[in-house]
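Following up on my earlier thread - several people asked me to post the actual chain instead of describing it. Fair enough. Here it is, all 208 residues.
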Amino acid sequence: MHIALNKPKQLVVGLTGGIGSGKTAVSNRLQALGATIIDTDEIAHSLTKVGGLAMPDIQKTFGEEALLPDGSMNRDYMRALVFKDPGKRIELEKILHPKIRELVQQYLNAGAPLYFVLVVPLLFEKGGWGELMDEIIVVDCPEEQQVRRVIQRNGWPETQVRTVMQNQATRERRRAGATQVIENNGDLAELIEKIDFMHQKLIKKAQK
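Reply from S.P.:
Thanks for posting it. Predicted structure:
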């Protein structure tokens, strides 16, 4: 059951993409250009750090193994658990999702000078966000490039990267649901040029 969210008057741009596609590079650049970023992954991290609002429920539901010695969530343990058991994933989502949505609403209520960018990595897999968004930007690149980037960034074995990708929406599904696609198959300078161009279009739309 999703908590219904109230859409603000300002432009809300959804930002998503598969693992290793370059979402963070895009959101960092848009933030530097003045957009107000609301990142659901960062909110989830804040909820599961030491003293995070979700930690009492996580401890009660999953036991002491789910905690690191400092009292934050043991991400490696929980990642393995929810991968193995879809029921556990649902239990974790029941704890996290309402709290994430509550915080997103607080940030939206605070307003934005230009426009909002709502970063939702699993936008097409989870649903429940589309009603807030005026635009949906998908960052996309070939799958082999995704694999290379994640291995380089996280040091994961290729099989782990591909398992994550298999649990995400296909590129075709994401591209079909986008109002705009940013192709991130070149270097950073090329990507920044595309983002800056898109930012100008978003500003015009936000001012209407």
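Strands lie at 12-17, 36-39, 116-119, 135-140, 180-183. That should answer part of your original question.
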